[in-house]
Specification:
14 strands; Helix Hairpins; Beta-Lactamase; alpha+beta; 474 residues
Length: 474
């Protein structure tokens, strides 16, 4: 399982459980919270009514006062209020008053006048001088039918002469509880969803950054060319820089060691030839023979110079991880420039060159490297084309790429050599002289092609050899 997915699952589990716990706890606290707030309001109402009713209860004139009519009128009122989206069409308070023995003197519902309520906790506790409250179900089998009762003492000085109790059904509070729970549920779900979305984005970013570093490390371990990943963020950015620095140091050491070995091996042959010719020149010999040995020294010296220069060019390309520039390079103009530079060899060998590159085609990349690569291909074609032979250069666009085709008339490449042509220091004898080249030209071309994101293909065709160089178009 990818690391990013594992991080997200852990984050999801943590945020989900924490969100569920907090949300469920708050949900559970809504109902008692609303009821506590309502009870506090009932306490204030009961104590207000106790003060209003004190004189009538003390005088025993409660039944003959205006209060029964007022309470009846109160029960018929229709407030028509809209409380935070909840419509209130009727009043829900029930009010009853008892004397000092708990006998009901007044009931807004008109049901309990004359009954003994001294056994109910709201009346019983209040007559004792304690806080009196109770919650009683109107229907014992229905938990939602409970009614909250809060009482306050009616006092004559310090003596309790009666009790006023205010009741409110809990059913009337349910719309507010459900509304709060619904709003809180949506808000909580939204916050949890937002948290998970942020967690997913963070996990994706972290997984992508680690994936870049992993792919880069794999490419380096396999010897493939790869650009150092660009990772934003403190420690990950520092890790990317450290990995790139480590790669540079390790590759640099291995690169120098490898090239010292190969260069030493390749320099042995020309140095041995120069040394042998120099020893022979130390003795007496005919002038013609002496001139031949001097020519050998010059040829081998030139070969050494060419080998060193090509090794330096190849080393510069192989060490690169990317291009220094990407510009549009007109292909036809570049080919004409190279043909003009080789005009002397073309005329000396009486070669026929057919240049069929469209004028509007261009490559996108580093001009210097592209010129060097095409120069190597043309140099190979001139070496292997017999006098009077034909060289054809053409190109075509295929989507976002351009395929350059270079055909030279001549002998077919042996099957055993086809797969090794781009190996460093591997070369076939030239038809004219029988000598081999440095074996670095085609390897350089392949490195340039890969650096540009392209490909190099070499194969036999009817009448000769064709090289295909596929590169991004401009």
């Amino acid at each position: 399982m990818p690391l990013g997915v594992r991080i997200f699952l852990v984050y999801f589990l943590f945020v989900g459980l924490a969100g569920w716990f907090v949300l469920s706890t708050v949900m559970d606290e809504i109902r008692p919270g609303v009821r506590q707030s309502t009870e506090e309001t009932l306490v204030d109402t009961a104590n207000l009514l106790a003060e209003i009713l004190r004189d009538e209860v003390k005088a025993g004139s409660l039944q003959h006062s205006r209060l029964p009519e007022a309470l009846e009128a109160y029960g018929r009122r229709q407030p028509g209020a809209n409380i935070w989206g909840v419509s209130k069409a009727q009043v829900n308070h029930r009010i009853y008053v008892t004397d000092a023995r708990g006998i009901v003197l007044l009931d807004s519902s008109g049901q309990a006048v004359g009954q003994d309520y001294s056994r109910w906790n709201d009346v019983l506790l209040t007559l004792r001088g304690e806080y009196g409250a109770r919650s009683t179900r109107e229907d014992p089998s229905d938990p939602d039918s409970s009614v909250m009762y809060v009482a306050a003492p009616i006092k004559d000085g310090e003596r309790i002469i009666g009790v006023v109790s205010v009741a409110k059904p809990n059913r009337s509070l349910q719309p507010y509880i459900e509304r709060s729970q619904t709003r809180l549920g949506w808000l909580g779900a939204g916050l949890i969803g937002l948290g998970l979305l942020i967690g997913a984005a963070l996990s994706w970013w972290l997984g992508a950054a680690l994936g870049k570093l992993t792919r880069y490390a794999q490419a380096v371990s396999e010897g493939r060319r790869a650009e150092a990943p660009r990772v934003r963020g403190g420690e990950l950015g520092q890790l990317a820089v450290a990995v790139e620095r480590m790669r540079t140091e390790l590759e640099g050491k291995a690169y120098v060691e490898r090239y010292v070995h190969t260069l030493t091996h390749e320099l042995k042959s020309p140095l041995a030839a120069i040394r042998g010719a120099a020893e022979l020149l130390d003795g007496e010999m005919p002038a013609a023979q002496r001139q031949r040995f001097v020519a050998n020294i010059q040829q081998e010296s030139a070969r050494l110079q060419q080998l060193i220069e090509r090794l330096l060019h190849l080393a510069q390309v192989e060490q690169r991880q990317g291009l220094e520039e990407r510009v549009a390079v007109p292909l036809a103009a570049l080919v004409d420039e190279l043909l003009q530079a080789q005009q002397a060899r073309i005329l000396a060998a009486d070669l026929r060159v057919e240049q069929a590159v469209p004028a509007n085609l261009s490559l996108r990349g580093e001009r210097f490297l592209l010129r060097q690569a095409l120069a190597n291909l043309l140099d190979n074609a001139l070496d292997f084309t017999p006098p009077g032979g034909t060289i054809r250069i053409g190109a075509e666009r295929q989507g976002q790429r351009v395929t350059l085709r270079l055909f030279n008339q001549g002998q077919a490449i042996p099957d055993y050599a086809l797969a090794r042509l781009t190996e460093r220091f591997y070369s076939l004898p030239r038809p004219g002289s029988g000598r081999k080249s440095t074996g670095l030209g085609l390897n350089f071309v392949q490195e340039v092609a890969e650096l540009h994101g392209g490909e190099l293909h070499i194969g036999n065709v009817e009448g000769g050899v064709e090289v295909c160089l596929v590169l991004p178009s401009g």
